[in-house]
Amino acid sequence: MKLYQYRTCPYSSxxxxxxxxxxxxxxxxxxxxxxxxxxxxxxxxxxxxxxxQVPFLVDGDTKLYESRDIVAYVRRKRGF
Length: 80
Ligand SMILES: N[C@@H](CCC(=O)N[C@@H](CS)C(=O)NCC(=O)O)C(=O)O
Known about the structure:
Elements lengths: L1 E4 L4 H12 L9 E4 L5 H10 L6 E4 L2 E3 L2 H12 L2
Parallel strand pairs: 1-2
Antiparallel strand pairs: 1-3, 3-4
Helix pairs in contact: 1-3
Bound molecules: glutathione.
Protein name: Glutaredoxin
InterPro entries: Glutathione_S-Trfase_N, Thioredoxin-like_sf
Organism: Leptospira gomenensis
């Protein structure tokens, strides 16, 4: 599971915080990818999802842009 994001984006912070509440550890349970504008991470977001927006989650074939959808998806996946 990869979360494309950047530190000062409030929607990205919300997702990171909710992941932390679920006990998910970056670097262990998911990969954090720096995706502020102009970074290779942002290019990947556009290539994979078609939009230049973060946070963006990729989990296998699942690709999600909306922070609330990302949190809801991972909650469901973790059985919360
Ligand atoms: N409704 C979206 C909003 C996401 C959003 O507005 N993200 C901003 C950054 S915080 C963004 O990607 N803006 C375009 C950009 O940074 O190029 C969500 O909840 O995830």
